[in-house]
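for the record, two folds in this file. i put them one after another cuz i was lazy. first one right below, seq on top, structure tokens after. the second one comes after a little note so u can tell where it starts
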Amino acid sequence: MPGVRLAAGLAIADARAEARLTLTTVLGIAAVLAPLIVLFGLKAGVIDALRATLIENPRAREIVNLANRSFDAAFLATLAARPDVAFVIPRTRTLAAEGAFATSAGADTVVRAELLATAPGDPLLRGLPVPEGRAVALSASLADRLGVRAGGTVRFRIARIVGGARETLAMDLAVAAVAPPASFGRDAAFLPLPLLLLAEDFQDGRVPREPPAVLPPPDPARTYAGFRLYARTLEDVVALDHALRRDGIEVASRAEDVAGLLTLDRNLTVLFATIAALGSAGYLVSLGVGLYANVERKRRDLSLLRLMGLSARGLTTFPVTQAAVLAFAGAVLAAGLALAVQVGVNRLSFAVGEGERIAVIRPAHLLVATALTVVGAMLAAGFAARRAAAIEPAEGLRDA
């Protein structure tokens, strides 16, 4: 080990002594590596921005069935138990999923809105209070049209025709929350499932005109016309869409948009890997040849070190250490250049969206780039190391 440490120290000293050659090599490494880091940063920035746009909009992970069918509680429980499902809740029939809302019993303005069931964990109400009992969460558009905010009260009405006479179920609901505009773009009210089922049963004539004081829990034997489901990740959207269609359930989702994004991500990764491999391989071969030539140029000096007792292992350390030092210095310089370019690129006007960066270079990217560069350079120095190990002590005496 002392011989290895001595050879490593001599390699560093030799690099300092030949400062011009060292600087040229370091600049060459940075010239190849910096564009690759910037290219990867651009790929990461664009893909991250697109993914964030879909992920932050929970409706990108939404899957709903198209036609009214009969889904029992067991089917919905099976869906909810899937590891790729984040949330699922029943939907009532399309014709029964609409109600009228007003600010009071005698208000002139009445707005009709979709009725959706909700429960804890609903992505559309993420971070907001979930309505319970006689409470409701409103979409942003419905709240604006009614002029109400969270903490207010709205009058909820459902009408039906019985024996030629019109009957109305009406009740006051507390506004528990207002969903952000990105969650739902239309007029909608999010109701606890028992309240939504009460509205459907009233329209079907199964409950009296006066609502019960306490809403009963859903009947386990009840069937539902549909469901509203949210995949756990973007990748799960495509898998769930295909799985449900294989089961004969026609669904609406953004699976095509998600699949397009994932394909773009994979293609850009392959493209980047190809460019990086070609550029890196070319320069590493050049670096290896340069180190080999350096060993040949210093063969007499290295043989004298052998003559003085330095082992063959110690000699192999000489080009490998130089390669590691040069690669590390080049990687540090490349990282600085790439970060400077990132700042300039993100100030340009073609950013992908408000507040988004088109280039994202993370510390982990720089660490991986540095590690791969150093390891690659050390491997490239292997040929030169073998040549150094083959130098005999007698060569120094013969050439003296």
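(here's the note) second protein begins now
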Amino acid sequence: MDQNAYRQFLELERTHWWFRGRRSVYLGLLEHLIQRDGKAPARILDLGCGMGGFLEGLSGLGQRVYPSDISVESLVTCRQRGFANGAVSHGYALPYRDQSFDLICLFDAIEHIEDDRRAMAEIVRVLKPGGRVFLSVPAYQFLYANNDRVAQHFRRYTRPMVRALFGSAGLQVERNSHANILLFPLILPAVLGIKLLETLLRLEARSDHTNLSWPIPPFVHSLLHSLFAAELPGTRRFDWPIGHSIVASARRPG
């Protein structure tokens, strides 16, 4: 990911509605699945952890959380946040033994890897039998815009693509739902309008300005976060058919 984007994410993750909404919905669904299991995971890997926005939440769901990222700068930030057991890694070669983790999380991470099936096979290698992979990804390739270029995304996904990705590694799908659904009717025309302007004005990708750069009053952040988080009760019960993102879970047989 572009370093400007990393720094922007670090500054905004505690206040911006999108970061707060992701944590509310994704961690809420994950907590629901773990409670249904009746057993907390002993070892959790946050792969592609970035600046560590999910680490604190994950630490409340299991016994020990391990951050991992391709960026040394990210892991230094994670260490400063109290998670000193991080490891620099590449999605094709993880520095862990076979069957090391009970839960592996990829929050908006695998779209950064060119060969996602190769990466998923490597993820399964370090996952214990019966363990869970939990991921989130951006949805719909037709929404690919400057944000995706700055973040160095190779693709956006559909639910059938996520199911096929899990299946390619022999994983059994638990959940495969869209997310950020209530705000999607607002996001869709906004992103398409921005894409049209980028095309008409021939604007090049800029890492110093993304959709997250627009100034928003704090009360609007609170309102948008509340709308994002309001989908969680439904997400616990069923898979949403449409939305701006996808959140999914699968298990390794055994």
